Every structure is written in structure tokens, then in C-alpha cells.
Amino acid sequence: MTEADILNVLRQVQDPDLHKDIVSLGFVKEAKVTGETVSMIIELTTPACPVRDQMKEEIKKLVLSLPGIKTVDVKMTAQVRATASQARDKLIPQVKNIIPVASGKGGVGKSTVSVNLAIALAKTGAKVGLLDADVYGPSVPTLMGITEKPKQVNNRVIPVEKYGIKVVSMAFFVPPTEAVIWRGPMLHKMVENFLGGVEWGELDYLVVDLPPGTGDVQLSLCQMVPITGAVIVSTPQDVAWNVAQKAILMFNKLNAPILGIIENMSHFICGHCGQKEEIFGSGGARKAAEQWGIPFLGEIPLVTHIRTTSDKGKPIVHSDPGHPSANAFLKTAENMAAQISIRNIQGETKLVPVKIGPVNQPTLEIEWSDGHKSVYSSRELRLACPCAECVNEITGQRRLNPENVPQDIKSTVINTVGRYALQIVWSDGHGTGLYGFETLRKLCACSRCQ
Ligand code: ADP
User: What is the 3-state secondary structure (H, E, C) of the chain?
Assistant: First the structure.
């Protein structure tokens, strides 16, 4: 057996997210054969790889099946890839990935999720920072039990280190009794200082806890640095009200990618009997993610233990790592890290429309990036409108009465929304529907797509 034989057999191991074999991806850094022993170094794109153990087992099994090989030693390492950009190099050169965590409105658990995700990533071995840019309600120091203030050296802020992550919060600089009533330019300056004026050092991931909604901080962040992708936190009822969609639209408008959506408080687990209760329905965010053509990263239950650990400044992922809710955070962090790797390795590979229209016709034609051409009946497409007015997002039941849609309905305006969806305004005046590219492709009636 030679190194070439080993590489040959390793070509059978596919990365399920990147859809390529680990040899082509350059993951195999060493494959040495010494007598009956093979030792290998496999370098993944994130230490938080969700299929790390599964991949290791597959590699072992395959190599052990080779004649004359009795022992296999597989060392799994990771090198997080960075978002390629010049702007990053200028303002915050050593931070590989900036991941804002956003929500349509407050109180959905965005800060709780940010903190636990950051700690979960650090636990896998990644270098992680957490920037609390929630200017109007910075809660990260409370959630992390941080009481000290950061030091300043040469006019630069040194982050406070706790639970394996580096933390900077707006709360460090504004007394708790004072309210922030800053105008846009001041918030812009603050974001700039938090990025460029902080000694973050080398980081694989900088998680940014954004203020809720769609305001100046979000705008400044997306304009100032090329974010790797935003994560949207939503509760089931938040999805129903389409509030999360507003946050998504904002990032789309800013041409900032979205890594995925997390459903927090997705179901209630009774602390006494352990029974699961779906108070606001379930699967809303998963369904919305599918409609909008963005990944669903995970669901976090509504559990008293999450709240109490946060209140004590000891987030559940740190203080009770074996707890099922801590595992839910860990799994979500892994899925997020996988999406980051996919983005950084592949760039934009999604199926997107390259030619749309013309409008004002009984049919609507879309030519896709894979060369396929879909021809839709305008009326069928109007009837399939996924907006909250036309479909009950909790039950999935259609609200739109087909009798109210004219037979000769036509599209009047078509806008591309970021890299994810089309907004179609119809001749009946309706225009709130966002047709995710994936959903649209599924709606193609041709025999190949069906
Ligand atoms: P946001 O940042 O969106 O305003 P927070 O993270 O501050 O929201 O959370 C609001 C409240 O909800 C806090 O008291 C927090 O402890 C609690 N909370 C958040 N997520 C959960 C959860 N999954 N289970 C129980 N309590 C939660």
C-alpha cells in the first residue's frame, strides 16, 4: 500500500455539505503508510463540523478494508476559512468571519442565542469573539456574568475574556442608568470603533449581537465590513407575523448573505413532567426558511433552565453542557459553522434566475443559472403566493380564495430580492409575496422538475 492507494480510497469519502470528496477538497494533509499502519491528518474547514465523527469513522473503515492494513490513526484538525475581502483586511484584518445575529423584533432571545452560540463554537476549539452591539439594551455582560470593564492599551480596547470567548459590549461604555439616544452618524462611529478600535486578535468567528429591527447599526455594519452572513433568530409567532421577514429583507437589500434562521422558544418543555407543548404551533421557521430559500439552522426549546442559567451569568452551554437544550445550541452552532464553510469555499453556488419576464403576460418565464427554463402560468403563480395574507403560516392553510383572483391576472413588476427571492407585483394590486428561488423552482410544472 502506498500513499496514492490511501488517497484513492479516501476519494470515496464525500463532504455532505460541500458535495465533493475530501481529497479534491484538500482535506487530506497527510497519509503515511508504515508497515501495517496508516496515519492521516485530515484538516476540516471548521472545528465545529457537524459530521466530523461520522467522517472519521468512515475514513477508518475504508482504510482498514485495504489489504495488509491493521491499524489506522486519524487526526482531525481544522483551519477555518475566511471571507475573502479587501475591506476586511483594512478594518479588522485578523477576524476571519463576522456573523451578525439579528431579529425582526426584541425579546425573541437573540442575545441568549448569540451568547450560547459563541460559547458553543469556542467549545469546539474555534477562536471566538462576541460583540454586543445591541445599543438600546446591551445584555451580554449580564448573560455572561461579566462585571469588570475592559482595559485600554494605546487607545485600543482589550476585550474581556470569559468562558473561552472575547467579549466587548456597549454596556461597558454606557452607564446602566443612561439611555442611548444617538443619531445615525454616532452609531456608525460606534460600530467602526467596535471593529477597528478593539484588539480582537486572531478570530475564526466574531458573533455580533445586533439591536432588534432594521436600523442604523445593521446598516453601518453591513456597509463597513463584508459580513460572512447573518443569522436570523425568530420565535414561531414572530414568523407568523412576518417580522423575521423584515430582517431578512433588510439584509437582502444590503446585499448581505443570510446563513440561516434559528427558531427560538420553538416549543415549551414543562420543567415538571418534561412534556412538550407547541404553544405557537411548530415548524413555522423551518417552513419559512424553505419558502425563502435559506437554510434552517436549528430550533431551541423554551426551557426555564435556559432563562435561569442566563440570569445567573452562566449560560447553559457553559454551565450544563450535557443538557438537551445545551445540545440544541451546539447542534445549531455546528450547522451555522457548516454554512459558513460552504459560503467561504463555494461562494455563491445557489440556483438563481438569470433572465426573468417579460411582465404583463399570461405566462411568466424564468431562465435559471443551470440553463433550465421554467414557464409559469401567471394565475397559478399568483394562487401560490406564499405571503401571510394568502397563506396561514402556522397551519399552512391557504387563505386566498381562487375565485377572487381574475382569470387574466398578470405580473406588473418583478423585483429580485437579494440572492434569494423574487417579489412579484400582480395586476390585482397584490405585491407582498416573496417567492424564494427554491420554492419557485419547485413550482415549475415541467416534467423534469416535477
Ligand atoms: P432579545 O435579545 O431578543 O431581546 P433575550 O436574549 O434578552 O432577547 O431574551 C429575552 C428573555 O427570554 C430573557 O429573559 C431570556 O433569558 C429568555 N429566553 C431567551 N430564550 C429562551 C429560551 N429558549 N427558553 C427560556 N427563556 C429564554
Answer: CCHHHHHHHHCCCEECCCCEECCCCCCEEEEEEECCEEEEEEEECCCCCCCHHHHHHHHHHHHHCCCCCCEEEEEEEECCCCCCCHHHHHHCCCECCEEEEECCCCCCCHHHHHHHHHHHHHHCCCCEEEEECCCCCCCHHHHHCCCCCCEEECCEEECEEECCEEEEEHHHCCCCCCCCCCCHHHHHHHHHHHHHCECCCCECEEEEECCCCCCHHHHHHHHHCCCCCEEEEECHHHHHCCHHHHHHHHHHHCCCCEEEEEEEEEEEECCCCCCEECCCCCCHHHHHHHHHCCCEEEEEEECHHHHHHHHCCCCHHHHCCCCHHHHHHHHHHHHHHHHHHHHHHHCCCCCCEEEECCCCCCEEEEEECCCCEEEEEHHHHHHCCCCCCCECCCCCCECCCHHHCCCCCCEEEEEEECCCEEEEEECCCCCCCEEEHHHHHHHCCCCCCC
Tell me which of 134, 302, 310, 317 to substitute to probe ligand 1's pocket, judged by most ligand atoms within 8 Å of the beta carbon. Answer: 310
Residue owning the nearest CA to atom 24 of ligand 1:
302
CATH of 3-78, one of 2.60.40.10, 3.20.20.370, 3.30.300.130, 3.40.50.300: 3.30.300.130
CATH number of 353-443, picked from 3.40.1830.10, 3.40.190.10, 3.30.2020.30, 3.30.200.20: 3.30.2020.30
* pLDDT level of residue 86 (50, 70, 90 thresholds): very low
Q: Does domain 86-346 have CATH number 3.40.50.300?
A: yes
**What does pTM read for this prediction?**
0.78
Reported as a single tens digit per residue, the pLDDT across 47-85 is: 999 999 999 999 999 999 999 999 999 999 999 988 765
How many angstroms is it from 265 CA to the middle of ligand 1? 8
**Is 109's C-beta closer than 6 angstroms to any atom of ligand 1?**
yes
